[in-house]
Amino acid sequence: MTTKQEKGCTLWFTGLPCSGKSTLAELLAAELKRRGRGVEIMDGDEVRKHLTKGLGFSREDRDENIRRIGYVCRLLSRNGAIAIAAAISPFRAIRDEVRAAHEAAFIEIFVDTPLEVCIQRDVKGMYKKAIAGEMKNFTGISDPYEPPENPEIVVHTAKENARQSAAQILTALEHRGLLAAAVTPSYTEEEAEKIRRRLTDLGYIEK
Fold first, then answer.
1. Which of 21, 24, 92, 153 is paired with 164 by a 20 to 30 Å CA distance?
2. pLDDT at 204 over 50
3. What are phi and psi of 42, to 5 degrees?
4. Which residues are CB-contacts of 198 (< 8 A; sequence separation ≥ 6)?
């Protein structure tokens, strides 16, 4: 049974490809688990491998992909867990639909990173292929991205490092009563390095 300080919620990251969503999701999950919270990450790439493999990248399929992620997050959060969604979710209407369906708190986190910075970070070469016309329906190049109008949290990963952005999010959760304040400093250097290595191996950040 959860206490008053252990309310479930959904942390919904949205932003361009390579904006830093997965990095922040991993950092937050590690700290939240360290504080004793139940946490699950719904990463966009992993979801497409295991939950929405048959969906493509049309507007309809993208919306359905987000709708399914939102459904799982809703179940987790209403039962006291912290669900973290790290998917591009480019369209405002479907994000609002997912928010409206939630019983627990829905915290939209806009990872506001300029397109040129995202292109520089792209170790998989996706933007290069999209610009060359080799990848269709690519968000930010051949498909639109609709930024949130009133997100609960905005982080600027081009101006601050991932640990600073994560700390900002944790503080916001504490102020909203969704997370008890930490009694010890967040993130040891060893934890941060372990996460960095994992994300590098997955191809999310450069070596």
1. 92
2. no
3. -105, 90
4. 26
Cβ contacts of 5 within 8 Å, gap of 6 or more: 177, 179, 180
Q: Residue ranges per domain, the chain?
A: 9-201
pTM of the model: 0.83
Bridge partner list, 14: 110
Which residues on adjacent β-strands are paired with residue 9?
82, 105
Q: Which of 143, 132, 88 is nearest to 111 (CA)?
A: 88
pLDDT computed for residue 156 by the predictor: 96
Dist. CA 95–CA 99, nearest whole Å: 6
What would the 3-class secondary structure string for 120-167 be?
HHCCCCHHHHHHCCCCCCCECCCECCCCCCCCCEEECCCCCCHHHHHH
- Report how far residue 158's alpha carbon sits from residue 114's, in angstroms, rounded to the nearest whole number: 7
Maximum pairwise Cα distance, the chain = 53
Question: pLDDT of 176-188, one tens digit each?
Answer: 999 998 765 555 5
Task: Report, as residue numbers or ranges, the catalytic residues.
Answer: 89
d(CA 68, CA 117): 29
What class has domain 9-201?
Answer: alpha beta
Q: Are strands 153-155 and 9-14 parallel, antiparallel or unpaired?
A: unpaired
The tens digit of pLDDT for each residue in 62-80 reads 999 999 999 999 999 999 9
